[in-house]
Design goal:
The chain is α+β, with helices and mostly antiparallel strands. The chain is built from four helices and ten strands, in the order H-H-E-E-E-E-E-H-H-E-E-E-E-E. The radius of gyration is 26 Å and the shape is globular.
């Protein structure tokens, strides 16, 4: 009788030990998975109200005449572009109406690589941008070189909606170089009608692909 009870106790403890081991394995695997997920995602960085440190609005990188930004040059053309918010590097999508040359090339801006092509006569362009995971907008640079209105507009493009709190914050924004309106390039934004263009955006990890097409409908 005692032998049977002892055997039952051994069996019970063995079963309990196996169950505990299985639970431990599941917890460890989940922790490893969570760490991999966090390491593969770009960090979400909410931005609060920021104050411009620019004393002369005429020197604003976006709406002013600061030669360092080249915006004064690009404003001559009715085209779209992308602004890198790490160093204010402006990328023209090459949609100039009077240009009938096919454009294709690859640019490296520091550790950011860009491949672009355009058919200006058909008002079509593509741009593929690869950004290292640790790249962040240079907030101090933006505060020093944007007037308050432009700073507010640019910072708004970096905001993440509550439903996408784990979404990447990419240090980029889309810009209408004719009107100087800026648009977000974040995961929750995948399409824009801008004037007589339709812009679509695809996201794949650290890569953003932008496509622009001529639209029969003109938008404000």
């Amino acid at each position: 009788m005692r032998t049977r009870i002892k055997q039952k106790n051994i069996h019970l403890w063995s079963t309990t030990a196996i169950i505990l081991c299985l639970i431990l394995i599941v917890i460890l695997r989940q922790n490893v998975y969570d760490k991999r997920e966090r390491s593969s995602k770009r960090e979400s960085m909410p931005y609060e109200q920021l104050t411009s440190r620019l004393w002369n609005e005429k020197k604003c990188y976006l709406c002013g005449k600061n030669k360092k930004s080249l915006m004064g040059y690009y404003r001559k053309f009715d085209t779209l572009g992308v602004i890198c918010l790490c160093d204010w590097y402006v990328l023209d999508l090459g949609l100039h109406e009077n240009d009938d040359h096919i454009s294709f090339g690859m640019i490296n801006v520091g550790d950011i690589s860009i491949m672009e092509s355009s058919l200006p006569d058909k008002r079509m362009a593509t741009m593929d941008i690869n950004i290292p995971q640790d790249r962040r907008p240079d907030i101090e640079m933006l505060q020093k070189n944007l007037c308050q209105d432009c700073l507010d507009d640019v910072i708004d493009t970096l905001q993440i909606s509550d439903n996408n709190y784990e979404t990447a914050v990419y240090p980029l924004c889309l810009v209408n170089l004719k009107t100087l309106d800026v648009y977000p390039l974040q995961d929750q934004h995948v399409e824009y009608p801008i004037r007589d263009h339709r812009v679509t955006i695809e996201y794949d990890g650290n890569k953003i692909s932008i496509r622009t097409f001529h639209s029969l409908l003109k938008h404000d």
